[in-house]
Amino acid sequence: MADQTVSEAEINRLHREKMERRQAARRKVLATKTEERGLLIVHTGAGKGKSTAAFGMVLRCIGHGMRVGVVQFVKGAWGTGERDVLAKFPDLVTCRAMGEGFTWDTQDRARDIAAARAAWEMGKAMIADPSYRMVLLDELNIVLRYGYLPVQEVVAALKAKPRDLHIVVTGRNAPAELVEAADLVTEMTLVKHPFRAGVKAQKGIEF
To answer: What is the pTM for the complete model shown?
Structure first.
């Protein structure tokens, strides 16, 4: 029993020393990270969770008293839980649902292009407004994929953003030019989804 106690104590000692070394190395790395500025962030990929993660960042900003602008390029036609929650913080969040659903819902290319342009103009106005600390351009990648907005125009405007502003762009199939310009890119990978098993979109999960 004594040997077992000593062995456990030795394991704990080695673990503590290992963690101390990791902590020292981590602090050394962190000491070199001194720059603070706004980031261009992209959430893309076929997996679920791109907008969900972005709205999590919006909630963090609210928690810090930071003002946020949100433009939804596609989901404007749908009622969503996140919009209902954000409406409770009118002093900190401006949410504009500009889309009319997916292109197969409207079946009108000219109408989709007009909606995308209106949403982009709203997004540019938010980006230019110094009161915002973060702007979320939800599903912007979708309209870029369909060619409803010129990629070069959009990327140029995002790269020219105010230094301290965070911008988050969501949607699958992010264009290469946007990925190259971004500071942080996360690709959601689809492993398994209930839709394939016949489960429809559900409150609290998809919307």
So the answer is: 0.84
